[in-house]
Specification:
With 430 residues, the chain is of the alpha/beta class. The chain is 51% helix and 13% strand. Helix 10 runs antiparallel to helix 12. The longest helix is centred in the middle third of the chain and has 26 residues. The structure holds beta-D-galactopyranose. Beta-D-galactopyranose binds next to strand 11.
């Protein structure tokens, strides 16, 4: 059974239960399920909360801790099955289509607001297609994250005798050797499946290029998944794992980021939500920290678009529906797009802002990200992130996560065996 029918079967049960009606204690209330719980992420989501409250609605925070959102997605599914979904939830990529097919997302709520605010004109087609179900908006996109970044503490580099950011895998390993020799953790990392696969997809992009990445992790081509370039990717992943702290198991991504911020570690491979932690610590891009594309991925942009999906509410919950609409209107507004992304580390999703980043006051990392986003959209380098739910169903993603994490945790694991396992695990999950 594929992911869609699996989710649909489970969710059909939800129709046996009435949707929860609740008394609105203001103009209306909106509960938002999300996983933005690190210091920097919370600062970002608080901006949305404050604006919705200023507009006279009640914000019910449905935060579920756990980077990458796997726990939040489990909670969301069980709430949907129990007939008690929230008004709004963070759902991304192809998963939006799966939820759309259950009939639980609203195809009406965003109609007027998307027309009045000209969303079709503001968003690139790639983005609007992702957040529409059968032609109707069912989610509002809030930002664009780039996944293939390397974060560097230049003070630590200096102390280890490294004078420049690495641009090739060889330079990366050489920097790692120097960091280790100087007593630092070379590569800060949290041993959680989504973080392991974030690193894995960077390595695939570096070794196989954007075409190879697309064939393997987007098109799920069997030959490419088990082919020689994938074997090489696993071999590089193994080498790279040797630069991570052996005590990394279970560590949250923001704790790993803190190791770089506090000068215990030299580098972290992480999407640009990591910047939210640097910002929250009052550090300045280009001075206190460097952001560079992961070596070998300069022409690639692995994108991750956060979006908030809107659930169908009973028609008599007029105030709550108005709250959902207000949140959606705010989320794509110019002011919010700026302050949210400044706090979150991302760039705006509105195309009318991406060409204007320095005038809008965005920092060096955000300016570089927007420039690379626009260039990679033309060159074909713009690719959906597998690790961040943008490329495949969650079932296929889960199969990839298992193979990658098992490989990284087994020091005797063989690259050729892992790529064969990857191909068969993906096939079984499809
Ligand atoms: C990503 C999400 C980001 C960030 C990150 C860490 O999947 O898109 O917004 O929250 O997880 O939790």
């Amino acid at each position: 059974m594929n992911g869609i029918s699996r989710l649909a079967t489970v969710i059909t049960l939800a129709s046996l239960f009435p949707l929860n009606a609740h008394a609105a204690d203001s103009k209306g209330a909106v509960e938002v399920v999300h996983w933005w719980t690190s210091g920097g992420e919370k600062a970002a989501v608080d901006v949305l909360k404050a604006q919705v409250e200023k507009d006279g609605f009640t914000w019910k925070d449905g935060a579920v801790a756990g980077g990458g959102g796997a726990t939040a997605m489990t909670v969301l599914k069980s709430r949907a099955v129990a007939g008690n979904p929230p008004g709004v939830a963070q759902i991304k990529g192809p998963d939006i289509q799966e939820w759309g097919s259950t009939g639980l997302l609203s195809t009406d709520t965003l109609k007027d607001v998307s027309k009045a605010e000209n969303w079709d004109g503001l968003l690139s087609k790639k983005v609007s297609d992702t957040v529409k179900y059968e032609g109707d908006y069912v989610a509002v996109p809030v930002n664009i994250h780039r996944v293939n970044w390397l974060w560097i503490n230049p003070q630590v580099f200096k102390q280890a005798g490294i004078d420049k950011a690495p641009t090739t895998l060889e330079e990366f390993y050489a920097a790692g050797d120097k960091l280790k020799a100087a007593g630092f953790i070379a590569l800060a990392h949290g041993g959680q499946p989504w973080q392991d696969s974030t690193v894995f997809e960077d390595v695939v992009l570096s070794v196989m290029g954007t075409d190879g990445y697309k064939k393997a992790l987007v098109d799920l081509d069997q030959k490419t998944l088990s082919g020689p370039e994938m074997v090489k990717s696993f071999a590089e992943l193994k080498k790279l794992t040797g630069y991570m702290d052996p005590n990394r198991a279970g560590r949250d991504w923001n704790i790993a980021a803190a190791e770089v911020i506090n000068g215990k570690a030299g580098m972290q491979m992480m999407g640009d939500w990591a910047k939210s932690e640097w910002t929250a610590a009052n550090k300045v891009a280009g001075k206190d920290y460097l952001c560079v594309p992961f070596p070998g991925t300069e022409k690639a942009f692995a994108y991750n678009i956060d979006s908030l999906a809107v659930f169908k509410l009973n028609a008599d919950r007029k105030g709550d529906i108005a709250a959902q609409q207000d949140l959606a209107r705010v989320a794509l507004g110019k002011d919010f797009q700026k302050v949210f992304s400044v706090n979150k580390g991302s760039i705006p999703v509105r195309t009318d802002m991406l060409g204007d980043m320095s005038a809008l006051g965005f920092d060096a990392c955000a300016q570089a990200s927007a420039k690379d986003f626009l260039a990679s959209d033309k060159s074909g380098g713009l690719q959906p992130s597998m690790a961040h739910n943008m490329a495949t169903s969650l079932a296929v993603q889960g199969a990839i996560f298992d193979v990658v994490t098992n490989f990284m945790n087994d020091k005797d694991a063989a690259p050729a065996k892992a790529s064969a396992q990857l191909a068969s695990a993906v096939k079984a999950a499809q």
